[in-house]
Amino acid sequence: MTFSVAERVELIVHLYSIKKVNTLKRYGIVYYVSSKMKYAILYNDANKAKRVKNQLEKLHFVRSVEISPIAKLSTDFSEVLENLRNETEDSPDNQWRFFRHASTFMEE
Predict the structure, then answer these.
(1) Three-class secondary structure assignment of the chain
(2) Helix 95-106 crosses helix 80-90 at what angle (to 10 degrees)?
(3) What percent of the chain has pLDDT over 70?
(4) Residue 68, CB-side half-sphere exposure with 13 Å CA sphere
(5) Is the four-CA dihedral 82, 87, 91, 96 of positive or negative sign?
(6) Contacts of 4 (CB under 8 A, 6+ apart)
(7) By C-alpha distance, which of 66, 64, 54, 63 is closest to 27?
(8) What phi and psi values does residue 84 have, to the nearest 5 degrees?
(9) pTM for the complete prediction?
(10) Cβ contacts of residue 23 below 8 Å, gap of 6+?
(11) Span 54-104, pLDDT tens digits
(12) Spatial distance between the Cα atoms of 61 and 100, rounded to a whole number of angstroms
């Protein structure tokens, strides 16, 4: 028996009212609810995301539903430190600013 990790997608659900937020549990895992800004974050399987999004949009207390773009964003930050070094080499005035910020990256 092979175990495979299911691909998960974040759905951002903007609500008219927070009162019916418990019904969102039927459609996925409710990860976060903001009562002040009236939105909820749901996690769902990637292969069910479009279908669940369409179902959620039909509910009367839901204003809009978005699929979060976080999966499409690049999380490779390996070049950031090199870019900072190149910037500081060009201008000696900014050299101390670089070392102050870079020390957080260099701590091990």
Answers:
(1) CCCCCCCEEEEEEEECCCCCHHHHHHCCEEEEEECCCCEEEEEEEHHHHHHHHHHHHCCCCEEEEEECHHHHCCCCCCCHHHHHHHHHHHCHHHHHHHHHHHHHHHCC
(2) 160
(3) 81
(4) 18
(5) negative
(6) none
(7) 54
(8) -65, -40
(9) 0.68
(10) 59
(11) 999 999 999 999 999 887 887 777 787 777 777 766 665 555 555 555 555
(12) 49
* Residues listed for the chain: 108
- Tokens 């959620």 correspond to 56
- In a 10 Å sphere around its CB, with 0-12 CB exposed, 13-18 middle and 19+ buried, how is residue 52 labelled? buried
